[in-house]
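User: What would this chain look like folded?
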Amino acid sequence: MRLRHIEVIQAILQTGHLGTAAEWLQLAVSDVDATLKDAEQQLGFMLFASVRGRLQATRETLAMQAQIAHLYEALEPIQRLASSLKHHHAPPLRTLCTPPLANQLLPQSIALLRRRFQDTPCNLSSQPTRDIVKSLLLHEADLGLSLHDPEHPQITSTVLAQGKLQLLAPHGWLKPRQKYIALQELAGQSMIGLEGQDPLSQLLDSKLQALRPLPVIQTRVQTYQMMRSMVEAGEGLAVVDPFTASGAREAGLDTCPLSPPILVSLYGLTVRDSSPSPALNALLEIVTQKAQDLLS
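Assistant: Here's the prediction, encoded as structure tokens.
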């Protein structure tokens, strides 16, 4: 099958009508019909059957549907790149970050970058660190930002900024101008836990398990942002990364670092021996400065 066949089949799968598929593809109905018949002739079986005015996929088409959808999705990045090249734009800067960095740090940094590199499209996405590493190695991304060093032999990890884990509490829970809270003061407190394999959470859990009495954790969530939301809802205290804490502090919650401090580093991740573009270097500079401003 040719790529045009794939486009037509996918369009009909999505719409169920030749006419609507033709509008979607910006083609004449006769062209879509001819392409469909050509595909059926090459394959040797029907792809769709007319049922009550709609085109329904045959058993053979349903068997191919997942692979067709996968191939169609794989074409989209190529189409976007071709569109950028057509309009003389620079290749897109593809940046991935872990969820705590997606709410404030990266959007603000990208906005500053776009003022300097107006012809550089930017693609942003949030993923766990392990998936960021996979995307970098597959050349599906140019830059990763994480609070965890993956320690991968093919990935260069650069420390951009450093902060401390922060206690998050309802407004008024901490004393005025309280500069830190001793870990022991969390003993017996109602707290929000974090699910998953987050390295920072695992380190903190090991310290909390040593407290007596143990903190009471009856609710666990998947992200630091959800922990913040649970604190806002009055469900207890939480210990979060400094970037989540920065946004929560602006929203009126109480925050302060733990004592003894637990340091958190912001890492820039790139493929080892790769050649960074001017836009990527500029973004690293902007993220570094923005992170240091947020953590100051």
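The mean pLDDT is 89. If you want, I can go into more detail on any region.
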